[in-house]
Design goal:
The complex is a heterodimer of chains A (419) and B (225). Chain A has 419 residues and is mainly α. Chain A is built from 14 helices and one strand; from the N terminus they run H-H-H-H-H-H-H-H-H-H-H-H-H-E-H. Chain B is elongated and about 70 Å long. Classes of the chains: A mainly alpha (419), B mainly alpha (225).
Chain lengths: 419, 225
């Protein structure tokens, strides 16, 4: 079937995709990096640079699986074999809907999950614009289940990590010396876990095929390299007796602050790997249809420039608008000292990276909040506002229908314009 | 315009204000030493001055208390249970109130302490304040408790501190018995109304250490969670 308006639609796909990626960068990434800035481990400028590098890396190296799910896992494309343009309109509508909702909610300061937005939008247009059968309800079910499970896993991991920090460092006679001894170990863990999960599953689209054994070896090596870099900085931390006067653990926290730089990288990488798909999954679907002249194939590979588009969009959004968000947060989170912040970030990053590797889109927002709750339950945080937590966890009740509604509206508008 | 959900998640930790409150209470109570010395020296002008200080510090402690109560609504999930927190705050507040009552009473009645018990009385006042000082030290460990997540090393340390509070309070009990005995020996030679108020002042002063001991007890409860 001849695709009319092919160029325009491609252009629109690029623009809307960039718009969505930009929104993700401005909103989500800023929140992901906020814990590192708030705890004092990073300045805003350093946070943006780290985020830029590692979001890009995460998106490019490990974003393939989730992109595939968003692109073809949710909708049964076979039903559209006769009318491929509907899929194009739908994906465009989803991008526009999710991006618009992101803009509105960010402006109002409401918690919004980009993942929920795009999934809600896609399911919305598929249900209404095509038919109930168009949706792979089994897949949707497992995705929704993961939205419940991921904060729980992150919370448990954070709890466990904090307990280990208590046992190894905080509860000992010489917390500063022990911090210097064990923090490199934690740094190794950061490098190892991120590498392992990524190598085991994520690099197939770049043509790398590794056996599990090779993945483990490379991960250990990566962990050691990262640990070496970290140890260099840890060695340089000296005890400042003045700092200890008010608060005996001030110097210990300085050591953990170095660890938080690495977990910030991990957090950015994980976020990039999972959320870039929210912007470019739909774009990839549109591109593959247009490029194949209207054929809907389940097999077409992901073009690299699409991933690039997403990664660049995220970085742009972060640099342009994310600064303000990070600045706001940085002023207000004084309770999250590095020893806690690292537990939250490593737990959240691990959970998200695992989800990315298995192709499941999760909400980094919810995962991070789950991790924070985990540390709170371990009595590691002075006070948590449960009303805010509840609002965040319930935000999907609004996001899913709004995303679906907007998506349906835009779908019919596009259908009208281009038919 | 730009804001983040993360800003709202962390409520203001009540630990710092609680510690500040105790320090204010302690400063208030400490003023009783120069106050008592002024009483013993029959220096009414100095006595009034010190009373004003005590009253001012008690008011400031009150403000901190009210502010803290406002900032821990029910929806906060805290490392320290809300009930225990509010209890400690209330007990601390009562200590400052008691100091003000003591000073006010002695001032209002232009009280004079009999020669026989002046030395012991001053020591008694000082020992009660030692008890409050120790309670203040223990409360100041709260931020370390939260930092370590109530790890055994620190909870043990705090337990030792609380034990010391109890020891000092026991001291004050002994001193109180001694002073009352001394007063009993000479009470027939004194104006009966004055004697009754003297006994009352001794009791009120002893209540300072009692309050400190109760602070220690609450702190122990917090550890046990």
């Amino acid at each position: 079937m001849e695709m009319e308006y092919a160029t325009i639609l491609l252009l629109l796909a690029g623009v809307f995709g960039l718009f969505m990626a930009w929104g993700i960068g401005a909103n989500d990434v800023a929140n992901a990096m906020a814990t590192s800035v708030g705890s004092g481990a990073l300045t805003i400028k350093k946070a943006i640079i780290i985020a830029a590098i590692f979001e890009f890396a995460g998106a490019f190296l490990a974003g393939g699986q989730v992109t595939r799910t968003i692109r073809k896992g949710i909708i049964d494309a076979n039903l559209l074999a006769g009318t491929p343009e509907l899929l194009v309109f739908g994906m465009l509508a989803s991008l526009l809907a999710a991006g618009t909702w992101l803009l509105i909610a960010s402006h109002r300061g409401w918690p919004v999950s980009t993942t929920h937005s795009i999934v809600g939008a896609i399911v919305g247009f598929a249900m209404v614009g095509i038919g109930m059968d168009a949706v792979h309800w089994g897949k949707v079910q497992s995705i929704v289940a993961s939205w419940v499970v991921s904060p729980v896993i992150a919370g448990s991991l954070a709890f466990g990590l904090f307990m280990s920090v208590q046992k190894l460092v905080l509860g000992t006679d010489k917390p500063f010396e022990n911090a210097k001894r064990y923090v490199p170990g934690y740094i190794f863990l950061v490098g190892f876990i991120i590498s392992l999960v990524t190598l085991l599953k994520g690099l197939k689209h770049l043509g790398f095929h590794l056996t599990s054994f090779q993945a483990v070896i490379f991960s250990v090596l990566a962990g050691i390299v990262v640990m070496a870099i970290g140890t260099y900085f840890v060695r340089k931390v000296e005890i400042d007796p003045e700092a200890d006067r008010d608060f005996h653990f001030a110097n210990v926290e300085k050591v953990f602050a170095i660890l938080m730089v690495f977990t910030a990288c991990a957090m950015a990488f994980a976020h990039g790997s999972n959320d870039v798909a929210n912007a470019i999954g739909p774009v990839a679907a549109i591109v593959s249809i247009i490029n194949s002249g209207g054929e809907i194939s389940q097999q077409s590979p992901l073009p690299s420039w699409v991933l690039l588009l997403g990664a660049v969009g995220i970085v742009l959004g972060l640099a342009m608008l994310g600064r303000k968000v990070i600045a706001t947060v940085g002023k207000n989170i004084t309770e999250l000292t590095p020893s806690r912040g690292f537990c939250c970030e490593l737990a959240a990053a691990t959970t998200v990276v695992i989800a990315s590797a298995t192709g499941i889109p999760v909400s980094t927002t919810h995962t991070l909040v789950g991790a924070v709750l985990g540390v709170g339950i371990a009595r590691g945080i002075g006070a948590l506002d449960l009303a805010v937590v509840r609002n965040i966890f319930l935000s999907w009740i609004v996001t899913l229908p709004v995303g679906a509604f907007l998506s349906v509206v835009f779908f019919y508008v596009l259908k009208f314009i281009f038919s | 315009m730009a804001s983040s959900y993360l800003t709202g998640i962390f409520g203001s930790s009540p630990i710092a204000p609680l510690q500040k409150h105790m320090e204010k209470v302690h400063a208030c109570v400490e003023q009783l030493i120069p106050y008592t010395e002024a009483v013993l020296a029959r220096d009414f002008i100095a006595q009034e001055r010190h009373y004003e200080n005590i009253a001012k510090l008690e008011r400031e402690a009150d403000e901190i208390k009210n502010k803290l109560r406002m900032q821990i609504p029910n929806r906060l999930f805290m490392a320290i249970p809300r009930g225990d927190l509010l209890d400690v705050l209330r007990i601390q507040d009562k200590i400052a109130g008691k100091a003000k009552d003591i000073a006010g009473l002695m001032l209002g009645r232009k009280m004079q302490i009999p020669e026989v018990i002046t030395d012991d009385f001053l020591l008694f006042v000082k020992r009660n304040i030692d008890c409050c000082t120790q309670a203040c030290t223990a409360i100041n460990e709260l931020d370390e408790l939260v930092e370590t997540g109530f790890v055994k090393a620190v909870t043990d340390l705090v337990e030792t501190m609380v034990q010391k509070i109890d020891d000092i309070e026991h001291d004050t009990d002994q001193m109180q018995i001694k002073i009352r005995a001394e007063l009993f020996n000479i009470e027939k030679d004194l104006n009966p109304v004055d004697v009754m108020f003297l006994y009352k002042i001794i009791d009120l002063t002893g209540d300072l250490a009692d309050g400190a001991e109760r602070v220690g007890n609450r702190l122990q409860l917090m550890l046990g969670q």
